[in-house]
Specification:
One of its GO terms (molecular function) is 4-hydroxy-3-methylbut-2-en-1-yl diphosphate synthase activity (ferredoxin). Pathway: Isoprenoid biosynthesis; isopentenyl diphosphate biosynthesis via DXP pathway; isopentenyl diphosphate from 1-deoxy-D-xylulose 5-phosphate: step 5/6. It catalyses: (2E)-4-hydroxy-3-methylbut-2-enyl diphosphate + oxidized [flavodoxin] + H2O + 2 H(+) = 2-C-methyl-D-erythritol 2,4-cyclic diphosphate + reduced [flavodoxin]. The strands form three sheets. An eight-stranded parallel barrel has the order 3-4-5-6-7-8-9-10, surrounded by six helices. The protein folds into two domains: about 250 residues, TIM Barrel, CATH 3.20.20; about 90 residues, Sulfite Reductase Hemoprotein, domain 1 (2-Layer Sandwich). It is α/β, with parallel strands linked by helices and about 350 residues long. The protein starts with 9 loop residues before the first strand and ends with a helix. Helices cover about 40% and strands about 20% of the residues.
């Protein structure tokens, strides 16, 4: 069992980040809040896909004030992504956002930081300090040979943290993102030993869906396995809904959470005598209508399939024109190959009806 690092919990609307709370999955909408109807529709779509926190970019005052129409229509917590102009943060708080993504060191004088903290303090609104390896301060880069390093990212984060701690504000979440996976892992590991705050995990600019999924799974998964991390966003050059699916799968793969059914399937080999890929895809499609956290196996060999997938709640294995439906390694039925999927789901539906 993974032993998680204990962090100070913060409340982002109805979602707790840190402490003993489940690791939450976030994403970021691509819609400008000014386009209210589209933004609301997109947030509802992403929430339906499983996003537990949704972030919106706030490039100007029109976007900051438009957030109010979103927060009054949506139940999912919203985070305002602010850069440089502290007045956008003040307006976003007035609009009812649940958290700010803002770096205290880049919004001007200390008076600006004081204004933001005084605004959010009565509401306990958290600030996420977001450090990216590609945008470290010039003096930190110079001190580290002109290149981003884990120690440089740590120092950048600590500078922002000290500003808030000086004001006795500790509703803090921190991220140390990089597109360089080993650098990102090292930075988070170092920070986790230095501060008690909740950590938001992510590999920034991870890439298109396939490569970005792999990089994110390696980086985020490594940290989670070592007990580090309280919330995550998988950053893909793809529909944000894909980010949610990958984030959920990372957590499921580590046994940290379960999101609906899990499909396992064996690779093809010389023993496979069934259209395994098509069979697995058909089962995957049918599983989309099921919300129960069951594990379903699709195996290509009748001889070894049930034993190799003994931990599955249900499974099928194909042979020469025939196949078996099994549960926890025990054969339930032998049927024609063409009837495998229908018979499998008949058994699953009987189980769901009995449990509900």
């Amino acid at each position: 069992m993974i032993r998680r690092r204990k962090s100070l919990p913060v409340h982002v609307g109805s979602v707790i980040i840190g402490g003993d709370a489940p690791i939450s999955v976030q994403t970021m909408s691509t819609v400008n809040p000014v386009d209210t109807d589209a933004a609301v529709a997109d947030a509802k779509r992403l929430a339906a896909c499983g996003a537990e926190i949704i972030r919106f970019a706030v490039p100007n005052m029109a976007a900051a004030t438009a957030l109010k129409k979103l927060t009054t229509q949506l139940s999912v917590p919203l985070v305002a992504d602010i850069h440089f102009d502290y007045r956008l943060a003040l307006a976003a708080v007035e609009s009812g956002i649940a958290a700010l993504r803002i770096n205290p060191g880049n919004i001007g004088s200390e008076d600006n930081v004081v204004a933001v903290v005084e605004k959010i303090k009565p509401h306990g609104i958290p600030i996420r300090i977001g450090i990216n390896s590609g945008s470290l301060p010039d003096d930190i880069l110079a001190a580290n040979g002109g290149h981003p390093t884990a120690s440089g990212m740590l120092e950048s984060a600590l500078r922002h943290i000290r500003i808030l701690e000086k004001m006795d504000y500790r509703q803090i979440v921190i991220s140390l993102k990089s597109s360089d996976v080993p650098l990102m892992i090292e930075a988070y590991r170092t920070l986790a030993e230095k501060v008690p705050y909740a950590l938001h995990l992510g590999v920034t600019e991870a890439g298109l869906a396939q490569t970005g999924t792999i990089r994110s799974a390696v980086g985020i998964g490594t940290l989670l396995y070592n007990g580090i991390g309280d919330t995550l966003r998988v950053s893909l050059t793809a529909d944000p809904a894909e980010e949610i699916k990958v984030g959920q799968e990372i957590l499921t793969s580590l046994g940290l959470r379960r999101f609906g059914p899990t499909l396992i399937s064996c690779p093809t080999c010389g023993r496979t005598q069934v259209g395994l890929i098509a069979l697995a895809k058909a089962v995957e499609e049918r599983l989309k209508s099921i919300s129960q956290p069951i594990k379903v196996a699709v195996m290509g060999c009748v001889v070894n399939g049930p034993g190799e997938a003994r931990e599955a709640d249900f499974g099928i294995a194909g042979g020469q024109g025939m196949g078996i439906v099994f549960s926890h390694g025990t054969v339930l039925q032998t049927v024609k190959e063409a009837d495998l999927v229908d018979t499998l789901f008949a058994e699953i539906n009987k189980y769901i009806a009995k449990e509900s």
